[in-house]
């Protein structure tokens, strides 16, 4: 996930983290953690982000990499 995708969209649209959090029904803290790559949004949150941004941020941009296998 590009950690700056949501932040970049917010800045272009002059929306604060708190305002964006309200749009997608999460806390500002959650938005901050997603933007900083500390947390990956769940399926429902991804859908709300895509809807809130009118598809300007797509689900593919928000999906994190799967964990790497410890074996092999």
Sequence-ordered SSE layout with sheet pairings:
Layout: H1 5-12, H2 17-24, H3 28-35, H4 43-52, H5 59-62
Give the full name of the CATH homologous superfamily. Answer: lambda repressor-like DNA-binding domains
Radius of gyration: 13 Å
Strand element count? 0
The main sheet comes to: none
> Unreliable stretches, pLDDT < 50, 5 or more residues?
66-72
Please give the count of helices: 5
N to C succession of SSEs:
HHHHH
Q: State the separation between the terminal residues, measured CA to CA.
A: 25 Å
Structural class: mainly alpha
Compact summary:
With 72 residues, the protein is mainly alpha-helical.
Keywords:
disordered C terminus; 434 Repressor (Amino-terminal Domain); 5 helices; mainly alpha
Structural overview:
The protein is mostly helical. The chain has 5 helices and no strands. The chain has helices at 5-12, 17-24, 28-35, 43-52, 59-62. Mean pLDDT is 86; it is low at 66-72.
């Amino acid at each position: 996930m590009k950690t700056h995708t949501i932040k970049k969209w917010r800045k272009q649209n002059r929306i604060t983290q708190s305002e964006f959090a309200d749009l997608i029904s999460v806390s500002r803290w959650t938005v901050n953690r997603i933007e900083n790559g500390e947390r990956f949004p769940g399926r429902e949150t991804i859908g709300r982000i895509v809807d809130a941004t009118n598809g300007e941020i797509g689900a593919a941009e928000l999906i994190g990499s799967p964990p790497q296998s410890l074996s092999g």
